[in-house]
Amino acid sequence: RSEIIPKTKQLKVLNLKLSDAGIYTCEYGSHTVSISLHVFELTISSHGHFLPNEVPKLTLMQNSSKPLPDLSITLFNSNNNTVITKPLQNTRQKYILELKKLEATDSGTWMCHVHADSPLINQNIAFDVKVLGFQNPVLERKYATVDSTVILSWHLNFQKIIWKGGFTGQLNWKQHQNATPHELLDFNVTAWGVQHKTKKSSHFRFEIPESKSESTIELKLPKVHFNHSGQYQCQLVYNRRYAQNKIELVVMKVSANPVGPLPRGTKTTLICQVSSPLPPNAHLLWERVNGTQADVKKSTQNEAKVEVNVSAAGLWNCHLIEDNDMKISLRYPVEEAPVWISYAVTGASIGGSVLVFGLACLCIISGISWQRRRQRAKRMIRARQHLLENKTCQCQQ
């Protein structure tokens, strides 16, 4: 593993090991020159390949011919920021440091700075940290309206960090936190970055769109239903270790009670509803198009539904607003019923009242007649008994 460069008489040692540390002497005639070689060995757990929230361990070993110096070690991440470490072992020959929990954004080239006063050492050792994960936020919330089309996307970073190992994953859905999850699809990515997807469930209609990027997992709902809401979780598996990322789909719908055109003089209730309670920074808002401030109704905090009473025709909008940003909106037109329908409704109401009154009178008359017949029948029974008693007395005489 060594060679001498003829022109400069330099000694070149390849693939240094800790055991290569020591004193090297060069003799030339009566001249002797000695050089002390100090060797460091830096290793990182999992060969520098991690998933989010994992805690790496860094091991630094040193060897030299002289008594080993006490080292001061400082770590810098890929953004050149100092990393706080927890020392687990310090024996001068071997230092073990525990790092913080990693995030996908921690991927890159890190620097280990080694310092000692005697002998003077200022050595920088570079090493790579690769964190396979998602470029999405930890929990992303996506809003959709009933019957709309929505695409849910998870952006992986394996191409960005040049991840050379293969890994697998799956996409699950559950309607709420404690519900049973349903596997929708699974996928695998080869060591060359080629992605393969397989549909696993027909729980509801969805599609796997053709993605332009191999580092993106997508799910398409061509016609969103209210019960499509819930948590969609993408999970990565690498060397029996797991990483996951969730997208919460919130679906909004509008309706009226009663449904249909609004007859004159009547009212209807417009209902705007979302599939799950909203966060504190979001709310629902009913407003009438070209209406006044009185035609506005806002939901209370964490409320999943808001209602407004309407007595006239018009166009109403329900907005879902988060941090003063309108996320989605649905319209509901309230139409006025034709005049003949209003008359028919009025006539039906009057006719119904008359019918009820007539039925009540009929019931009263029938009750009186039945009572009279019952009393007449009782009198006839008593008269018959009286005659029978009189006839019996004459026979005895």
TrEMBL record:
Under SUPFAM superfamilies, the record lists: Immunoglobulin
Q: What is the protein's name according to its record?
A: CD4 protein
Ig-like domain location, by residue? Answer: 265-329
Pfam families in the record: CD4-extracel (PF09191), Tcell_CD4_C (PF12104)
Q: Where are the transmembrane segments?
A: 340-370
Which top-rank group of organisms is this from?
Eukaryota
**Mind listing the UniProt keywords for this protein, alphabetically?**
Membrane, Transmembrane, Transmembrane helix
Instruction: Specify whether RNA-binding is a keyword of the entry.
Output: no
Q: Is Transmembrane tagged as a keyword? A: yes
Alphabetical list of InterPro entries matching this protein: CD4-extracel (IPR015274), Ig-like_dom (IPR007110), Ig-like_dom_sf (IPR036179), Ig-like_fold (IPR013783), Tcell_CD4_Cterm (IPR021963)
